[in-house]
Write a structure and sequence with these properties.
Order of helices and strands of chain A: EEEHEEHHHEHEHEEH
Strand order of the largest sheet of chain A: 5-6-7-3-8-9
CATH superfamily of chain B: MetI-like
Order of helices and strands of chain B: HHHHHHHHHH
Mean pLDDT of chain B: 91
CATH architecture of chain B: Orthogonal Bundle
Distance between the termini of chain B: 24 Å
Low-confidence stretches of chain B: none
Number of strands of chain A: 9
Structural class of chain B: mainly alpha
Number of strands of chain B: 0
Oligomer: heterodimer
Structural class of chain A: alpha/beta
Number of domains of chain B: 1
Helix content of chain A: 25-40%
CATH class of the largest domain in chain A: Alpha Beta
CATH topology of the largest domain in chain A: Rossmann fold
CATH topology of chain B: MetI-like fold
Helix content of chain B: over 70%
CATH class of chain B: Mainly Alpha
Bound molecules: adenosine-5'-triphosphate, magnesium ion
Shape of chain A: globular
Radius of gyration of chain B: 22 Å
Strand content of chain A: 15-25%
């Protein structure tokens, strides 16, 4: 760990669901320190406990054992599903986030326009969530999570349903806001290359029960692009790490 | 536009026509003498005559103002109780099943008690109307807040909504469709209770739709009786439509399907 301050400390956290005697272990003894200002990607196959880990960090659920310390930092979260409020328009959804963060009314309209530009949805402000495509809904959710006044941002597969071009743009914007605001980001993804494109560090998780199998530093210089050879090479190495683990599992 | 309107109106119009035909055929069959069961033509003539009398409009005004007062009190009381019960675990355990119990109680069974308590007065009627309608409205609030999708609650919590602001910004708007359904049901109960009340609690020298029914029965004026029944039906249905339209507008705004509540 570098000398900078730890923003997220996950200390041998286990989480199981279900009634006593018939528990399903979703996470077992997961430990993880994330430095302030770090952008950490969490990579792992479906069901290995990535969302569970984010929910625990967000404080939405309590660990069965172990502890999580954020040093009193404020957390924002973007869920795997957009979870927009269906009774509010796109603007209304973002407005509510700003309002709950204490942004005064006069400043909100301009911020909403700015956020809609960032997620490339200008002019959709008056639409309702059900009138948007899945990818558009995700981007409104991104705008809403960026509207929060937070120091730690948790993102659960935010760009899984976007086309490649929009996704590239969202990567640039996420990176920009991360750098501007000095955010600490935990970014969950299935996509190996995306993790190599974005992360300072890539945490690889393994299922059954969920645990951390690799913690890979990724010090490729920014700006990076999905198409960069270096990113592809890093992704290749991560792939091998995942593969290796699968082989081990097959042998066991 | 006109065509769409036509498509929406013809089914109910057809249904009414069928009912009228059955009615007319029954009359023609000679099952009952025409002074006991008059045909549609005689009834609509009686209805026209009634509409021209001052007494009818006074009766309607009395009945509607009772409905308004009773439903208004039910609205305030039912909403307050619903909010209190849905936000407190203790209250829910204590009062929750009582509310459902009250809902299954036929309101007419309250009248003897109400008359003993309040005498033959307006209060007796209002009392029973409120007992009929308020539980439905409270239940609308409770089931609405119970059914708020948990992931929306979590989202709101992450956005910083707690306690009162969570209620105001998420629970209440999310519960709105169920609340409107509760209002609609509450209205149906209020209207039924009110008609029962006006038949049982007859206050002297105060014409109302219920009193009209009694009056026509005593004079064996079936045409007048049926025409009053039609008025009661029409008023009930019209108010019900208002709630349906509101509920469906709210649902459409959220991308939920239109329901025939
Ligand atoms: N509320 C819950 N009740 C019971 N089991 C749960 C609950 N939430 C998660 N689980 C279980 O915990 C495990 C991890 O789930 P989680 O949602 O964290 O996976 P994930 O890594 O986010 O998967 P995906 O990539 O598909 O989103 C799964 O086996 C899941 O069935
Ligand atoms: Mg997940």
């Amino acid at each position: 760990m570098t000398s900078s301050e730890v923003a997220i400390r996950v200390d041998s956290v286990s989480k199981s669901f279900g009634r006593a005697g018939r528990e399903v272990a979703a996470l077992e003894k997961v430990s993880l320190d994330v430095a302030e200002g770090e952008l950490v990607c969490i990579l792992g196959q479906s069901g290995c406990g990535k969302s569970t880990l984010l929910n625990l960090v967000a404080g939405l659920e309590k660990p069965t054992s172990g502890s999580i310390d954020l040093g009193g930092r404020r957390v924002g979260m973007m869920f795997q599903d957009a979870n927009l409020f269906p009774w509010l328009t796109v603007r209304g959804n973002i407005d509510l986030a700003l309002r709950l963060s204490g942004v005064p009314r006069e400043a909100r309209a301009e911020r909403i326009d700015e956020l809609l530009d960032i997620v490339r949805l200008p002019g959709t402000g008056s639409r309702r969530p059900h009138e948007l495509s899945g990818g558009m809904r995700q981007r409104v959710a991104l705008a809403r999570s960026l509207a929060q006044d937070c120091q730690i941002l948790l993102m659960d597969e935010p760009f899984a349903s976007l086309d490649a071009i929009t996704r590239d743009a969202m990567h640039d914007q996420t990176e920009r806001i991360w750098a501007e605001r000095g955010l600490t980001i935990l970014f969950v993804t299935h996509n190996v290359r995306e993790s190599a494109r974005l992360g300072d560090r890539v945490i690889v998780m393994a299922p059954g029960p969920g645990r951390i199998s690799h913690d890979v530093r990724n010090s490729l210089p920014r700006p990076r692009r999905m198409e960069d050879v270096a990113v592809a090479t890093a992704a290749g190495a991560l792939h091998d790490a995942l593969q290796l683990r699968d082989d081990e599992a097959a042998r066991a | 536009m006109l065509r769409a309107l036509g498509r929406r109106t013809w089914p109910p119009v057809l249904a009414i026509l069928i009912a009228l035909v059955i009615w007319q055929v029954t009359v023609w069959s000679g099952w009952k003498p025409s002074y006991v069961l008059p045909g549609p033509a005689a009834v609509f003539e009686a209805l026209g005559e009634q509409l021209a009398t001052e007494k009818f409009w006074i009766a309607i005004a009395t009945t509607m103002s009772r409905a308004l007062v009773g439903f208004g009190i039910s609205l305030a009381l039912g909403t307050a109780i619903g909010l209190a019960v849905s936000s407190s675990r203790v209250l829910r355990a204590a009062v929750g099943s009582l509310i459902t119990g009250l809902q299954t109680m036929p309101s007419i069974a309250w009248f003897p008690f109400a008359i003993l308590l309040f005498g033959i007065t307006e209060q007796a009627i209002t009392f029973v109307v409120v007992l009929g309608a308020a539980p439905s409205i409270a239940n609308g609030v409770i089931s609405g807040t119970d059914d708020v999708p948990p992931q929306l609650v979590r989202t709101a919590q992450v956005l910083g909504a707690r306690g009162a602001s969570l209620y105001r910004h998420v629970m209440v708007p999310a519960a709105l469709p169920a609340y409107l359904a509760g209002l609609k049901q509450g209205w149906a109960f209020a209207w039924r209770s009110l008609m029962a009340g006006e038949l049982l609690v007859i206050i002297a020298a105060r014409p109302s739709l219920g009193v009209q029914l009694q009056f026509f029965r005593e004079f064996a004026d079936t045409a007048g009786l049926i025409s009053t029944m039609i008025v009661i039906l029409v008023v009930g249905v019209l108010v019900d439509r208002v709630f349906s339209v509101m509920a469906n507008r709210v649902r459409a705004n959220r991308g939920l399907g239109v329901v025939r509540l």
